[in-house]
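An instance as discussed:

___
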Amino acid sequence: LGRALVRLFANTPAGLVPVTLPTDLPPWSGLRTQCPPDKADMPAAFSVVVLNRDSGGALLETVHSILSSSAAVDRLVVVDDASSDPRDRAALRQLEADARLRLCLLEVPVGDSMARNIGLAEVQTPLVAFIRSGDHVLPDYLATGVRALSRQSGYDVVVGQTAVALGGLATTGADGGVSQCRVYYGEARLAGVYENRLAPETFLIRTAVARRHAFDPVMPALAVWEMLLRACHDGTRFIVSSSVAILQPAAVPCDPA
């Protein structure tokens, strides 16, 4: 291999250059807590907006994963975009009795963007997570994201990797870990990067930033991706988790972004 590489690069104008290890600090070494020490461990209040439309009854699993997370949700808003599936209607009837939830039941479908904006209007906390029905949120994702934004005032969005459970949600262990899944990668060439680490439907964001950019109702698809790109171009800074945070059953469709 060494001889082959020498022959391959022998005629390059600059010739072969020895590899040198960088001596400067890595970029993440400057990431320090920006809140006063006495407030660094006091996470901000947050809400969750769940978008549901004909999820085949998967809404209950999503709500259960949110309420079972290690972070206490101040308000959980479920927006149903006029589901026609009987299993969804049965799930919504079960949730009506839960005082922790705010249900927004739309009589006619308005589309993902409008439905998310309707849910956003119900939020009264400084942070909000958007989660699509059918997504299973792993136990520590919300707590980690809220703590990160509470400590890092210069960042506004937390995204985690999404994975498709090859054997269904039963592949999650008792500790919430994922034993068998396929990590999601999207059409990231639009942003000039190789791997798309932005979750297509589920993310945590400062409420003020979400309201400033909002979801464009003109977009027939890829509304979340388009909104996050606009926020990125506007200077919004993202914290990206390197671990799987959201799990989807293989049968649940997601935004093709």
Notes: Residues 36-40, 170-177, 186-194, 252-257 have pLDDT under 50 and may be disordered. The first helix runs from residue 2 to 9.
